Each structure stands twice: as structure tokens, then as C-alpha cells.
Amino acid sequence: MKYDVNIIEDEGLFSSLLVDAIQRDGEKSGGAEIGEVREFETPADYLLWRQANDPPRPQILFVDLYIDTTDCGAGFAAARNPKIKRPGDVVWAMSRLDELGTIRGLLDEGVDGYILKNRRESLEEIIRALRAACRNEHYSTEIMDRARMSEVEDSVRLLTDREKEVIGKLLIGGKTPQVVAWECAVGEKYVSKVRKSVRTKLGVREDWEIRDVLIRSGMGVTESAG
Asked: Is the residue at 150 inside a domain?
């Protein structure tokens, strides 16, 4: 799919480097994926342009969260603004912020991706995200993966040590409820109760989902060793 690219960013040097990198990458593909590349200093500038124009292609936007305007939250608001992201559009936020909870919140609220600007690889990551969008694929940066993993870790912290022991033996160790009950010196009804409690705390329904969350949190290593 062919997209226009819009950069909402007020750091002239970074914006210029980004535009140059995108245009050079577009030339490599013979212009098959990238349409027009535009720069805007504020979200308001982009909205004014969008209201006055009806571009034939969907838009990809890279929005700096910390745009230097009188409204210090302009970038954050823009990334979440439904007027910014119309059907078919893709919105990526970018900044030097590395607070995982905030990044996770942006992703949960519908922002398609996040670029950490203080990395040397920032421009390369933007190009990879752009290519993925043009192929109708999703690209995840390292900090996006870390933000999602932090959510998993937060969920697992809600489990008691006893719940971890029981559910680990049951779903990672692959033991039957009867064996788990015997090894943990509890009744089978308690094992069933723990399974339901863990589902609720982790926000999942299926056993394979519980197992996946536990393994991603590092529990699988402990269980397999024991």
C-alpha cells in the first residue's frame, strides 16, 4: 500500500534528517511505497492542512510528543486525537521519553508504535516501521517490546507465591491437578481455585495464555530447573 508521510516535529535537524532518509528510501523502491513527504511544526498545522485537503492516499504520521508549543501536552494529545488519525492512517509517536508505563499507555490507547529518539538507530527504526506499514505489517521497536513486557511483569506480581507454585507445576511443569495437589499438600479444589484466580489476575481465559505469560515473565526457567 502506498502512503504519504507526515512528520510533526519541531527540531529542525532531526526532521530534516528524517525527511532525507525517507526520501532516499523511497527512491530505492522507485516510489512504489512512499507518496508525498511533508513536515509540520505543530499538530495544529497538520490539522489545518488536513481540513483543507483530501489526500487520495492514507497517511503515516510520526508525531513528536514534546513539541515546543504553549500547550506542553500538544504532542501527547495529538497522538491520541481521532481527528489526527483517520481510518486507514498509521500514527507513530516519538520522543526521548523512556518511561515504559507511559509508552504502554500510548499503545493501549491506539497509537500504532513508538520510537525512542535518543537512539542512534532512531532513523533506521522509522524506516523499518514505514516499510512494514506499506506491507500492511506491524513493526515493533525494542522499547515497545519492553513496555509490553513490563505489563506482563506487573500482572505476574499480582500472584502470590503459592499461586505461582501451583500454577507453575500445573501449566509449565505439565503435571496433573492430582499430582500438583499432592506435591503442594492441598486439595484438588484448591488447585482449581488457583487456576481461576490466576486467570482473573492476568486477564486471560485460556491455559495456554497463562502459560505464555508465565514463561515470558521468566517463570519457565525456574520451573524447568526444579
From this structure: no
